[in-house]
Design goal:
Peptidase M1 membrane alanine aminopeptidase domain-containing protein, 31 strands, alpha+beta, 7-stranded mixed sheet, Peptidase_M4/M1_CTD_sf, Immunoglobulin-like, 6-stranded mixed sheet, 20 helices
């Protein structure tokens, strides 16, 4: 398809890399339907956005034995994978993800990193550039065997492994095979990463947060086939649901927090710990200490010689992670979710107190309550928050979170609310994408953006529950303005693959969250939005939704045509900038020889078009002809109608769309007597002219000013042109800069 491209030198490089979505949208009418951009509905995924009658998805069950050596930081494992082919297609081979291989010597990750470096390098920059000769990263695959123990042929391609089958796996069949592997756990504080260990030299202990630690089945789906996009470090994970039985062997003085339900508590917990845990199962008002700080400090000094095996089991999950250390304090409480009683838990070292003991588990509980309200009831037995520095990462039932006070226990509001925000966010990921299982490798916004939006709703509930005002970072419309004010060539549409996003946090987290908040508060209203959003969550819980499924469901469940909204917010880099360009006052032309009428006829509209004219222009009504009456039986009494309207004030207002993104017009009229009125026009006001609209308003009172977006609800990037007559107002971006300075 031929496209016209207009480029400036400063944005050439970025524009050449722009996604097809942006180029396509640039030349389309803003109210054109999205049909040609969305996949054709079929019996797997319907036009309503619901799963179709023939919808299917694969299943992968795992049985694992894991061993962690604290002396060498070596993790070894064996697993049996049972793979169910629920698709209509025969499969000649299986693809397995080897995400740890992003740290292998032949990884593409450091080769594709291209960014500007300052004159001084950080240690992490150095490691990324020079490599880490003292660290042997990546999976070491010992063997791959079939269910009978016979070796299987496999081929490793970076972070993907193809396992050959003796014969095609037919629809409805299943197969089992085993893999043995090992890898050295990375020092996360030196090398970074989503998992690894943190070393505490003061007490010579490590706190392990372990994920992506086992070879995992890649997704085979109806809309993508095999998801075999390499893991380069940013695009997260596409995974299938299944059941897990995992045995984790660690030093016997370690505590283990994990996905799944503990199967052997008598083998690994003391009677006191088991009694405290049982008490916590029915305690809803505050956490119960399972392992106290005093006990944890005593334990971190121990060096037991033996080892313990913790066994966990879980169903209908898409991944597995765990944390292990002898440093852990552990507290827990129950959460009432419509009669169910999942547990909220936290594991943290003494370095997290007093902040973590005061807040973490209570915030986990609040998160489960709010997310369950807006999506589906939380289905799992527990949700865990684990404390570890400089991280926020999520897995089913468990997440790893930062937020550390100073050594003397003091902390700033920034540290406190940063910790609370990341706990809400990472626990919230249990819903997006751990249950509502979008493809993170392709579409970051479908988990990060939707999750950040519900995080904002949870932060508002936190304010009510805890009686504290929360400093929201993402969600409110005005917070996205500095980003949306930027040069369009320097950022990309939301509908961009994870690895190609510029300004990742703003694009994948903040902008979609803000868009959904605006959709809820400004476009649809909370009642319609909440119903549709919950319907999407129910339809796609434990399934694999695509962007089209979300877009279509939100319209299907609300009867609101939102194609213009998705096109503007998700497929383009337009912003909101509505210019209240002109307001002219009119009065009815009543025959009179008085001075006022003569002035009204002779006075120009206004000498200064930044002001509403002091003297009204006359408004003429052309007489109705006979043909104008058409089917009406009785003729209008034109004179009596004109008499009724003689005392009305008429205001012709012109609005210009300077930013390109069409939005409803939220207007605030200020009257001569000091009173105010809010009026809202739907976005379709722009349907015939997307650049400029003029509308006549009839008011009983005389207007002194008209303002667009009076409550900062639309993310308008330039407020200096929002009011007529003009007032001296700094731009929102300048206000933001002043606040941050």
């Amino acid at each position: 398809m031929l496209k016209r491209i207009m480029l400036s030198a400063t944005v050439l490089a970025s524009a050449l890399c722009s996604t097809w979505a942006q180029a396509d949208t640039e030349w389309k009418q803003k109210f054109e339907q999205l049909d040609h951009l969305l996949p054709t509905p079929n019996t797997y995924r319907t036009a309503s956005g619901a799963p179709g009658k023939d919808y299917w998805q694969q299943q992968a069950d795992y049985k694992m034995k894991i061993s962690l050596d604290d002396e060498t930081q070596l993790l070894t494992g064996e697993e049996t994978i049972t793979y169910y082919n629920n698709s209509p297609d025969p499969l000649n081979y299986l693809w397995v993800q080897l995400d740890q291989n992003m740290r292998a010597d032949d990884s593409n990750t450091p080769l594709v990193e291209a960014k500007e470096y300052k004159d001084e390098l950080t240690v992490k920059d150095y490691y990324n550039l020079a490599g880490t000769p003292d660290y042997d990263g990546g999976f070491k695959i010992k063997w791959v065997k079939d269910a009978n123990g016979a070796p299987m042929t496999y081929r490793i391609n970076k972070t993907m492994m193809r396992v050959e089958l003796d014969k095609p796996l037919q629809p409805g069949e299943k197969t089992s095979f085993g893999i043995a592997w090992s890898f050295y756990v990375n020092d996360r504080m030196k090398l970074g990463g989503r998992s690894g260990f943190e070393y505490f030299p003061e007490d010579d202990n490590r706190l392990y947060t372990i994920a992506q630690f086992f070879p995992r089945m890649a997704v085979y789906s109806d809309n993508e086939g095999w998801q075999n996009k390499q893991f380069l470090g940013r695009g997260e994970f596409a995974l299938s649901f299944g059941s897990y039985e995992v045995a984790i062997t660690v030093p016997e003085d370690f505590m283990v927090a994990s996905t799944g339900t503990l199967q052997n508590p008598k083998d690994v917990l003391t009677k006191t710990q088991r009694d405290r845990l049982e008490k916590a199962r029915n305690t809803f008002d505050k956490p119960v200490m399972i392992v106290t700080e005093e006990e944890a400090i005593k334990n971190e000094k121990s060096r037991a010689k033996g080892r313990k095996t913790w066994v966990f089991q879980a169903d209908s999950i898409r991944d597995f992670a765990f944390a292990a250390s002898r440093k852990f304090i552990w507290d827990a409480m129950a959460v009432d979710i419509n009669g169910k009683k999942p547990m909220a838990m936290s594991y943290y070292g003494k370095e997290g107190n007093p902040l973590w003991e005061d807040y973490s588990t209570r915030v986990v509980a609040q998160t489960l309550e709010t997310y369950s309200k807006y999506t589906i009831d939380y289905p799992y037995s527990k949700a865990i928050s684990v404390h570890s520095a400089s991280i926020g990462m999520e897995y089913p039932m468990i997440c790893f979170n930062y937020g550390r006070p100073d050594k003397n226990g003091e902390y700033s509001d920034k540290t406190k609310y940063g910790m609370i925000g990341v706990i809400i966010h990472e626990v919230g990921h249990n819903f997006f994408p751990m249950i509502i299982n979008s493809d993170e490798r392709q579409w970051t916004w479908m988990d990060e953006g939707l999750n950040t939006f519900v995080q904002y709703l949870t932060e508002q509930d936190f304010e009510v529950t805890f009686g504290e005002e929360f400093p929201h970072r993402r969600g409110p419309a005005d917070k996205i303005v500095p980003y949306m004010s930027g040069e369009k060539g320097l950022f990309r549409p939301i509908m961009t693959n994870s690895e190609q996003i510029l300004q990742f946090g703003n694009n994948a987290y903040a902008k979609p969250a803000t868009a959904l908040n605006i959709l809820r508060e400004v476009v649809m209203g909370p009642e319609l939005f909440d119903y549709a959003f919950k319907e999407y969550s129910k339809r796609w819980a434990f399934k694999n939704p695509s962007p089209a499924d979300f877009f279509r469901t939100m319209e299907d469940a609300s009867a609101v045509d939102l194609d213009w909204f998705w096109r503007g917010w998700f497929y383009s880099t337009d912003n909101v900038d509505v210019n209240v360009a002109d307001v002219t006052w009119y009065r009815m032309d009543v025959e009179s020889e008085g001075v006022e009428q003569k002035v009204a006829e002779e006075e120009s509209i206004s000498k200064n078009r930044n002001e509403i004219n002091d003297v009204p222009k006359k408004l003429d009504f052309s007489p109705l002809t006979k043909d104008s009456y058409r089917e009406f039986r009785n003729r209008f009494d034109q004179e009596s109608i004109k008499a009724e309207m003689a005392d009305k004030n008429y205001y012709k207002a012109t609005f210009k769309n300077e930013g390109g993104l069409v939005m409803p017009l939220i207007l605030e009229w200020t009257y001569e007597d000091g009173s105010r009125e809010i009026e809202k026009l739907p976005a379709e006001i722009w349907k015939l002219n997307e650049q400029e609209v003029t509308k006549l308003f009839i008011k009983d009172k005389k207007v002194v000013s008209l303002k667009y977006d009076p409550f900062n609800e639309t993310a308008d990037v330039e407020i200096s042109n929002n009011t007529f007559p003009r007032v001296e107002t700094p731009s929102r971006f300048e206000k933001f800069k002043k606040q941050t300075e």
